[in-house]
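Hi Y.,

Following your request, here is the sequence exactly as I used it, all 236 residues.
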Amino acid sequence: MAPVLEIKGLHAGYGPIKALRGIDLEVGKGEIMALIGSNGAGKSTLLMTICGIVKPTAGKVFYEGRDVTGIQSYNIMNQGVAQVPEGRRIFPRMTVLENLQMGGAKLSVAEFGRYLSWVQELFPMLSERAQQLGGTLSGGEQQMLAIGRALMSKPRLLLMDEPSLGLAPLISRRIFAIIEEINRRGTTILLVEQNAYAALRLANRACVLSTGEIVVSGDAQEMMDNPEVQEAYLGG
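Below is the corresponding structure, written out as C-alpha cells. Let me know if you'd prefer a different format.
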C-alpha cells in the first residue's frame, strides 16, 4: 500500500537560511508519526512545506500518490489535509461555532452536521461555549477549538504542530488522549511535539530532526529505548 505522505529529498528555507536539507519521510495510512527535535531543527518548516505555505527549493511531496509539491495551500487542504498550527491561530473575534463553520466551509449541510456532532462529542466544551468568542477561551480551550476546526474540514491527514505547548500537564494529557482517539477513528497524523516522551508514547513511528536533517528514525518504542535519544530528548 502506498504511503499517505511521501517526501523525497526535500529542501526548503527562508532566503539564505536552509531550514530543510534533503528530507526523506514516509507516513503510512492510519499511523501516528512523531517528529521530535530541538527548537530550530526545522519541524514547523517541514509541516508548512507539506501544506504549501513554504515553497520547497528542491525535492518532492506526494500526498496519496499525487505530486503536491509547491501547489497552493488551499488546494492541498481541499484534497484532505488539515493543519493545527503552532500557537492555535483561531479567529479570536469570532464565536466558537463560527470558527468551526470556517473549518467546515466546504462540507455539505448533512456532512457539516455529522462532523459538528463528532467534534462536539470529542470536545463537549465547544458545544457549551458555542456562542462565546474564541479569544475569551483559555489556552487549553483554544487548542481544543483549533483541533476541532481542523477536523471540520474532514481531513485524512492531520498535521499537528506543538499541540501541548504552553498547556498545563492535566490539559496536555487530555489533548494527547483526544489525538489518540482521532487516530483510532482513521485519521493519519503527523505530530510535531516538544514533549518528546509523550509523543513517542503516542506514536507508531518517529524521527528526530536536527538542523534540517533526519538523523534518527524508526519504531517509536525502540526510539524511547535508544540511549542517544534518551540523553538528548528524554532527560537521560
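The chain has ten helices and ten strands.

Thanks again,
Q.
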